[in-house]
DNA sequence: CATACTGGTTTCCTAAAGGAAAGCAGATCA
DNA sequence: TGATCTGCTTTCCTTTAGGAAACCAGTATG
């Protein structure tokens, strides 16, 4: 804490990390991608189910699902039932996000608790 | 993967997680908060240093630093040198984000590698 | 035949994110 | 006395995110 003054910060290992998180955030940006992935981690669900459970508008849901498909995190499954039913599911690749989502979840939970305590005090 | 069809998804543990990540994302939203925290994890830095190292505009940097201060993740230190110098540093609370940032960093790095491999192939 | 469900799309709108550039006060340096 | 650095702020602008509501085709179901 005291006198933690610095090397120049330019041209350092720092930039490698900045680049990595930028790449990650380019995929996970916005309000909805992580919530959608979380919901689908509980099972495969249909469009309207996701819409209702997450509280996302159909327009955004449609767009975000396409983005997630593009990044190979989600798959759209069409079943030839009658009538056709459609389900979204996570790809195996989405499982690589587990640590990200778990730590975010955990942090959010404790942060909420911390904020509650402060505002109540 | 096959037949992972679902319980209703409503009123379940899922919502707890949705709530937590929403709380986390409310604090860490946008393109810049995490990059700023990463930079400051390498030491305390001044406004223009951050501006140059991260490639963020002064307007955004100013705004994001205020947000981060508000959430008690960053502190603005004014030193009575002559002339006054100002440094930003992380609070101890910011350390609780370590897992979040590390996993995001790691995921971004491997994701970049994966994408590179695909586009080259 | 009417109603309702699914899986979306479309249109309209507002607000927020974010960049570019200029400016500004205070101090220092030549 | 200019020029230059710092730590910002201000203005102007474009893009994106996101919500609300309506709509639509296809398939039921009553």
Specify the biggest β-sheet of chain A.
2 strands, antiparallel
Instruction: Give me the strand/helix succession of chain A.
Output: HHHHEEH
Sequence of strands across the biggest β-sheet of chain A? 1-2
* Oligomeric state as shown: homodimer
Q: Helical proportion of chain A? A: 55-70%
Q: Which whole number gives the mean pLDDT of chain A?
A: 93
Structural class of chain A: mainly alpha
Measured by residues with Cβ under 8 Å of the partner chain's Cβ, the largest interface is: A-B, 57 and 56 residues
Number of helices of chain A: 5
- Unreliable sequence segments of chain A: none
Radius of gyration of chain A: 19 Å
Tell me the total number of β-strands of chain A.
Answer: 2
How many independent structural domains of chain A?
A: 1
According to CATH, the fold-level topology of chain A is Arc Repressor Mutant, subunit A
CATH class of chain A: Mainly Alpha
The CATH architecture of chain A comes to Orthogonal Bundle
Tell me the CATH superfamily of chain A. Answer: Winged helix-like DNA-binding domain superfamily/Winged helix DNA-binding domain
User: What distance separates the N and C termini of chain A?
Assistant: 27 Å
Q: Which percent band covers the strand fraction of chain A? A: 5-15%
* Gross geometry of chain A: extended
